[in-house]
Write a structure and sequence with these properties.
The chain is an alpha/beta fold. About 30% of the residues lie in helices and about 15% in strands. Strands 1, 2, 3, 4, 5, 6, 7 and 8 form an 8-stranded mixed beta sheet that branches. The chain starts with a helix and ends with a strand. Keywords: Membrane, Transmembrane, Transmembrane helix.
């Protein structure tokens, strides 16, 4: 059973004793409790680094879940009644609610939306935005469109009773409640926006969008990052048109620590031009970050691309069919060069029949391969409770780690080099050693160079601060910084460096338990 943040804290405090500080570990925790704990720690591991160095997991069309039509407030399953035959019942993208998705480590939530313009005949009760798996061409109209809409809507009756925004509001409130219990977490809300009808009045389309975003921000109770927020801490953000997240400079710690925000809204429009062919005024909203043109803001691999990149199903399938894994081949399929746009790199799996028969699936096997490539997130379809793919995405801590912390070397994450010059591919923290290697990195947080320096002598009575200062001095003497990998691609590179180490070497990482915050942090 997953424990909420408050429940975990209460349980941990009850286990304190004899000078031992427990680092978010429960005695007798189940394997699944460890998976959830490791994912929570992993999601926060690089919060002092730029956003384009981050890696998170996500879900595709997160709100299109069978949960929301089979577990209504009245207790009546809609899948046997008014929602029978809809995509939400027969072939949904998801099966669990947003809270359970977040509990498993998801930090990239997608709302697949359709905006109905005023001329469209099925725009009910003034509502403009609906949560749909959008597979309807903009030229479709009349009875054919209504039949398609009734089939694919993710929420029972959303287009019949005008409650589309109400359902999305409930999902936003669910995210808000989870964030209240996880004050150090940052969540991306990705809006994939399609449209039906003709944009006859740009002002109406913009007003509809602003009303929808106002509903989202109110439901998220002041947690959403704005363009003004970034200007207030020294960024120069343009309010008009497509606006970039400064992903190579902005950190999660800036968003959470300095600005007290926990949500970033990013958007992709299926039509990026207004009725006269000019810029889409919907992009002027103070809370929306979308396409950008700043050549200095680049993705995790240092390439320019779209924000967010949403590759086609066939591209991902083509890559999976290759007999030999190759990140460059993946990039050539998924990330075409686009000098006008850039940002974060993402891959969506889509297992629904409506999107090509469910062959574009992110699995345990290709997660291990994808994790070696320069991506910021991948979004899974049909995430289940205790889904094994989540564990496959843990690149940081080894099973049942981190363990209890005492002052000294156990405060640090470590890599233990094993037999045959191969290294454990995850972190531990319990080796009591008198001598260790130190992981050093170059100053580039996105694409660092790594080096391991041996010869750090550790006094058994030394405090964690003393050990940290010694490790920093050792790296600085070689013109480098005490470092730690903060995403799976960096871990892959670090492990390649460790292969040159002698058997039995313990390597200290600059990923340390901070007793004052009761958190593991990188510096």
């Amino acid at each position: 059973m997953y424990l909420s943040f408050k429940q975990q804290k209460k349980k941990l405090l009850s286990l304190l004793g004899a000078g031992i500080l427990l680092c978010q570990i429960s005695q007798g925790e189940t394997h699944q409790e460890w998976v959830n704990r490791a994912m929570l720690l992993q999601s926060e591991i690089g919060q002092n680094a730029p956003l384009n160095a981050q890696f998170q997991i996500g879900t595709h069309n997160s709100g299109i879940s069978r949960y929301y039509v089979s577990d209504q407030e009245d207790g009546i399953s809609k899948c046997g009644g008014s929602a029978a035959g809809t995509m939400a019942c027969e072939d949904p993208n998801q099966v669990i609610n947003l809270t359970d998705q977040l509990n498993q480590g998801v930090r990239h939530i997608e709302f697949d939306l359709v905006q109905l313009f005023p001329d469209y005949p099925f725009r009910d009760k003034g509502h403009a935005m609906y949560e749909c798996h959008f597979h309807i061409k903009s030229g479709t109209s009349g009875a054919e469109a209504q039949a398609l809409l009734n089939k694919v809507v993710c929420r029972s009756g959303a287009l019949k009773d005008g409650n589309g925004e109400h359902y999305t509001q409930k999902m936003a409130q669910e995210i808000n409640q989870w964030l209240n219990e996880h004050p150090h977490s940052l969540v991306y809300v990705y809006l994939d926006i399609g449209q039906l009808g003709v944009v006859r009045k740009s002002s109406q389309a913009t007003s509809d969008m602003n009303n929808f975003i106002n509903m989202l921000t109110a439901s998220l109770s002041g947690k959403v990052l704005s363009k003004d927020d970034l200007n207030n801490i020294g960024f120069h953000i343009n309010h008009d048109g497509a606006t970039s997240l400064p992903v190579s400079k902005l950190t999660a710690n800036d968003v959470i620590g300095k600005l007290k925000r926990q949500v970033i809204i990013i958007a992709k429009y299926n039509a990026l031009h207004g009725p006269s062919g000019g810029a889409d005024e919907r992009l002027n909203n103070p809370y929306i970050f979308s396409q950008v043109t700043d050549q200095n803001e680049v993705g995790i691999a240092g390439n320019v691309l779209s924000l967010p990149q949403d590759p086609g199903v066939s591209n991902f399938n083509d890559w999976q069919k290759k007999s030999e894994f190759n990140c460059q081949d993946l990039q050539s399929h998924l990330y075409p060069s686009d000098g006008a746009h850039n940002g974060l790199w993402g891959i969506n799996g889509d297992a629904t029949k409506a999107s090509g028969g469910g062959s574009d699936v992110i699995t345990m096997d290709n997660i291990k391969e994808l994790s070696q490539c320069p991506i910021n997130y991948f979004a899974m379809d049909k995430l289940a409770q205790n889904d094994p793919r989540v564990e496959a995405a843990i690149w940081s801590w080894a099973a049942n780690y981190p363990q209890a912390v005492v002052d000294g070397v156990s405060n640090f994450a470590q890599i233990k080099v094993q037999n045959d010059n191969a290294a454990v591919n995850q972190m531990v923290n319990n080796h009591d050693v008198s001598e260790a290697g130190v992981l050093c990195r170059s100053n580039d947080l996105v694409k660092p160079q790594w080096r391991i320096l041996n010869g750090l002598t550790i006094d058994a009575s030394a405090s964690a601060q003393v050990i940290s200062d010694q490790a920093k001095s050792l790296c600085q003497a070689s013109g480098m910084l005490f470092g730690a990998p903060i995403n799976p691609q960096q871990m892959h590179d670090v492990l390649n460096v460790t292969k040159s180490q002698n058997q039995g070497t313990v390597i200290l990482l600059n990923y340390q338990y901070d007793a004052s915050q009761q958190r593991w942090i990188t510096q």
